[in-house]
């Protein structure tokens, strides 16, 4: 039961990351102007680079997100 709840939480958080708009949401916090190639260096650019790379990864893996959503929906239907 705990694993199902954890899976649901991961899928919901990933859904939130996948729908973030770069121009409207990420630009407010300066995440749209991060140099992706310099993410390995130290400082605030390093942290921003890691966060932006993570967000871009979540947005680019939409097929896995769709599959995860379907799995969560099926688990909820079958456990009801």
Task: Please characterize this protein's 3D structure.
With 80 residues, this protein is mainly alpha-helical. 65% of the residues lie in helices and 0% in strands. It has 3 helices and no strands. Helix 1 packs across helix 2 and helix 1 packs antiparallel against helix 3. The longest helix has 18 residues. The chain is elongated, with a radius of gyration of 16 Å. It comes from Paramecium primaurelia. One of its GO terms (cellular component) is endoplasmic reticulum membrane. This is Immediate early response 3-interacting protein 1.
Which residue ranges are poorly predicted, with pLDDT under 50 across at least 5 consecutive positions?
Answer: none
Mean of the pLDDT scores? 79
Tally of alpha and pi helices: 3
Assembly type of the chains comes to single chain
Rg for CA atoms: 16 Å
> In percent terms, what proportion of residues is strand?
under 5%
Organism: Paramecium primaurelia
Family: Belongs to the YOS1 family.
Keywords: Membrane, Protein transport, Transmembrane, Transmembrane helix, Transport
Pfam families: Yos1
Helix and strand layout, with pairings?
Layout: H1 2-18, H2 44-60, H3 62-79
Task: Name its key features.
transmembrane; 0% strand; 80 residues; single chain; membrane; 65% helix; mainly alpha
What's this entry about, in short?
With 80 residues, the protein is an all-alpha fold. It has three helices and no strands.
């Amino acid at each position: 039961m705990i694993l199902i709840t954890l899976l649901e939480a991961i899928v919901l958080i990933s859904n939130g990351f996948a729908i973030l708009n770069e121009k409207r949401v990420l630009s407010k916090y300066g995440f749209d102007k991060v140099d992706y190639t310099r993410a390995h260096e130290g400082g605030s650019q390093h942290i921003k680079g890691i966060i932006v790379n993570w967000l871009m990864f979540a947005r680019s893996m939409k097929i896995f997100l769709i599959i995860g959503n379907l799995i969560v929906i099926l688990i909820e239907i079958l456990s009801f």
